[in-house]
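Example S7 (structure tokens).
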């Protein structure tokens, strides 16, 4: 069993969740976020998670089953509070070859109050989305220091009725690479190509097609400075090329660039427990907006294995 609790300060609750998931092992290609949903104010957020796992031998090798629940509890902006669930099965065929299957579920994520394009709608309406993602990874150790992974996934994003034209089916492929450069130093690289098709492409009267082609790249480094102190940093880049061909749709011919940097220092307080202090900084810019949207998150937490 593994548990973790992190207390965050964010300067924008509207994109805190998107910033937290922008990692190669997370859900980096978030739902389309309109600029009007950002700059929603600051808050303090508690992020707990708990993971359980079990393993057993079979004729193919060793199977590990695990489940992880995660929560995001907002202090003042409570409508943004939500939870996620991850189920995973890993089959180790040998020391050097593994297959990993995963299901990720994020129900009713509140994105903010937005302008609905549905006929008869007036004023601002709640926008929320539920994500269902199935993924598979094939992992191979080329040497004791080098591991490569091939990722593929398929997912559904389903919005509430006022924004149902944004319902999207998507698929992803991409390689991951991990290299122990030296004792106590690990380098990770990842790239994803993703294609998403939204229902709005077949509803030109709404002028709201969020279909896209996504390119995502990530690089991270982990360094053990001493027996107790370690440091991790990462840089992520994402490019969304919106593929709407509907005249009058603000995303027709448009694109979005996202840059993000993460850094965290860990201190091991016991053999199976450590505390961490970290910061995340992101900048996202739509080509049709005059300025970029920035988000800074600072967190302190503890994780332990039982």
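Recovered sequence:
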């Amino acid at each position: 069993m593994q548990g973790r609790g992190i207390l965050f300060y964010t300067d924008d609750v509207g994109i805190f969740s998107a910033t937290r998931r922008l990692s190669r092992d997370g859900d980096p290609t978030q739902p389309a976020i309109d600029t009007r949903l950002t700059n929603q104010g600051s808050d303090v957020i508690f992020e707990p998670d708990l993971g359980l796992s079990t393993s057993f031998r079979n004729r193919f090798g060793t199977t590990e089953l695990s489940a992880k629940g995660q929560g995001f509890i907002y202090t003042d902006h409570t409508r943004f509070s939500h939870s996620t669930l991850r189920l995973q099965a890993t089959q180790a065929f040998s020391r050097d070859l593994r297959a990993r299957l995963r299901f990720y579920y994020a129900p009713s994520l509140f994105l903010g109050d937005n302008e609905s394009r549905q006929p008869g709608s007036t004023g601002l309406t709640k926008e929320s989305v539920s994500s269902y993602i199935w993924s598979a990874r094939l992992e191979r150790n080329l040497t004791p220091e080098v591991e490569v992974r091939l990722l593929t996934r398929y997912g559904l994003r389903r919005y509430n009725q006022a924004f149902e034209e944004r319902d999207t089916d998507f698929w992803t492929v991409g390689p991951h690479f991990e290299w122990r450069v030296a004792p106590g130093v690990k380098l990770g690289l990842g790239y994803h190509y993703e294609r998403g098709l939204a229902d709005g492409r077949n509803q030109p009267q709404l002028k709201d097609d969020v279909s896209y082609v996504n390119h995502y790249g990530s690089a991270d480094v982990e360094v053990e400075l001493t027996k107790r102190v370690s440091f991790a940093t990462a840089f992520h880049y994402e490019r969304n090329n919106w593929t709407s061909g509907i005249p009058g749709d603000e995303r027709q011919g448009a694109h979005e660039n996202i840059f993000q940097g993460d850094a965290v220092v860990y201190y091991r307080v016991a053999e199976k427990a450590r505390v961490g202090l970290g910061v995340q900084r992101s900048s996202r810019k739509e080509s049709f907006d005059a300025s970029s949207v920035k988000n800074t998150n600072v967190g302190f937490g503890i994780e332990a294995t039982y």
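Notes on this example. Helices lie at 16-20.
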